Amino acid sequence: MQLKGIHHVSAITANAKANYHFYTTVLGMRLVKKTVNQDDTSMYHLFYADEVGNPGTDLTFFEIPRAGNTYPGVSSISGTSLRVSNDAALTYWENRFNEYEVDHDGIMEQAGRRVIHFRDPEKQRLTLVSDETNQGVAGGTPWDRSPVPVDTGIVGLGPVKLTVQDPAPTIKVLTELLTFTQVGSYASTVEGQDDILIFSTGEGGTGAEIHLETRNDLPKERPGRGSVHHVAFRVENEEELRKWRDRITEARFGNSGVVERFYFKALYFREPNGILFELSTDGPGFTSDEDVEHLGESLALPPYFEDQREAIEARLEPLDTK
């Protein structure tokens, strides 16, 4: 039982149409699934990924139209990374961000890798990270019909940053419960703060890291549009997920048990600083109910919601994704 890396990251948007435009037209990701939040079917759940939505490539968004601003702070998932193949790709992206007037900080080095920190229109905190030196979890395959050339396209999720006030209980969960090990650190850009710690699992590398930041100068984050709801880690299959359920229960963490999400099975629990973790199976995947050529074009509903389709569609603003 070892987690394989990052499975997906789920964030919040207040505007599905603008979100779809940015992530497909500007970032060149593919919308592989247009569906609904299975816990609240009145809102869209959009999945952006590589050509077929391989595990480890999905950045997803719940649309909450009335979501207010995010006030950054601790007890949060404070940064999401997107991988590109090499350092040269970052030069392409720097130019593209300038062309599309994307708020970014330029190319810099972080933890021995070249990166670009940037923000989407809702101030989602994002980073492009180069896989130039990656020797761990392999990336996915960019969609060949993307507006971004395949050789510079986004190949998956990179390190996810957590920000907490007291790192000790989070470290204990990562290392004693979830099979992460500390593999390094790098200096914080905030004066007077401790180094940011790097934890890795599975094959390691950019697709399997958590970066843990300690901040004693911030209040608890107030989430809204542009904030991250949860991070999910990869589990091989349902049999292994059930073993994780038992292990997490034995460690006395309240959890959801195994939840059917149709495209994968999941388990949710909060670590001691209040950050929501999910464990998700690699399959069956997003081609379970749609042809590969037409992923994300129509509203996809799991079979157990099909009898509610008419009512669900009536509550959603139309979103043209063809």
Automatic annotation (TrEMBL):
Superkingdom as given in the UniProt entry: Bacteria
Matching PANTHER family: RING-CLEAVING DIOXYGENASE MHQA-RELATED (PTHR36110:SF4), RING-CLEAVING DIOXYGENASE MHQE-RELATED (PTHR36110)
Lineage of origin: Bacteria, Bacillati, Bacillota, Bacilli, Bacillales
UniProt-listed InterPro entries: Extradiol_RC_dioxygenase, Glyas_Bleomycin-R_OHBP_Dase, Glyas_Fos-R_dOase_dom, VOC_core
Protein name: Glyoxalase family protein
PROSITE patterns, A to Z: VOC
SUPFAM superfamilies hit by this protein: Glyoxalase/Bleomycin resistance protein/Dihydroxybiphenyl dioxygenase
Domain VOC span(s) in chain numbering: 5-131, 156-282
